[in-house]
Write a structure and sequence with these properties.
Layout lengths: L1 H22 L6 H8 L3 H4 L6 H15 L7 H10 L2 H7 L6 H16 L5 H27 L8 H20 L4 H19 L5
Helix pairs in contact: 1-2, 1-4, 1-7, 4-7, 7-9, 8-9, 9-10
């Protein structure tokens, strides 16, 4: 029985997340979620106290798993020293584990679509931008330090790079096919990054 409860809760989470990303949180009701899951609306409350709690679980999922998108210093240093330009570019690209990928993309879409209306989404977004900026500066400055990238204004260019990513994420948030749109956004980001960073590879 407990396993069934866990499975049902996971199903509620996955379907809710997709519906929030595709239709907008405000446009999805508990009844809509229950119908998509194939259970009665009242049964949702056996697993989540409210629709707001499901949204909170989406935010928590992102916060718990976003650390897997970036390498630590021990991992990225040898790539910068000995890797190809393409491998270095992938260091600053989001790379989620296969089993997390779809839900991480969807949670990013939900968060980015709510930063102007939801204080917690805004807080997560600002925290993500701060961490992404720090990571990007570390990687690029190390590339300059070891002579694989020509010196340039890293903070200024980092802002441009992250702005491009945010714009891409917002564009993804308004389309139905998140995986396809995210793929195109990632390709655009990689192309822009490759164009503006003075690599010596």
């Amino acid at each position: 029985m407990q396993d069934n409860n866990v499975d049902t809760k996971t199903l509620i989470f996955n379907i809710s997340l997709r519906m929030f990303a595709q239709n907008g949180y405000e446009n999805v009701s508990v009844r809509d979620i229950a119908e998509a899951v194939g259970i009665k609306a009242a049964s949702i409350y056996n697993h989540y106290e409210s629709k707001e709690k499901i949204l909170g679980a989406c935010y928590d999922f992102y916060l718990e798993n976003r650390c897997f998108a970036r390498m630590n210093r021990e991992q990225y240093e040898p790539i910068i020293r000995n890797g190809t330009k393409e491998e270095v570019i992938q260091l600053v690209n989001y790379r989620f584990e296969e089993h997390l990928s779809e839900n991480m993309i969807l949670t990013m879409v939900v968060i980015y679509s709510r930063i102007y209306t939801d204080p917690r989404a805004k807080e997560i977004f600002i925290g993500e931008m701060d961490e992404a900026m720090q990571y990007l500066k570390e990687v690029l400055n190390f590339g300059i330090e070891v002579g694989r990238i020509d010196p340039f204004d890293v903070p200024a260019l980092s802002v441009i790079i992250l702005s491009t990513r945010v714009f891409a994420a917002h564009s993804t948030a308004v389309h139905q096919d998140q995986n396809s749109e995210w793929h195109h956004a990632q390709v655009d980001f990689i192309n822009e990054f490759s164009r503006i960073v003075p690599f010596k590879y």
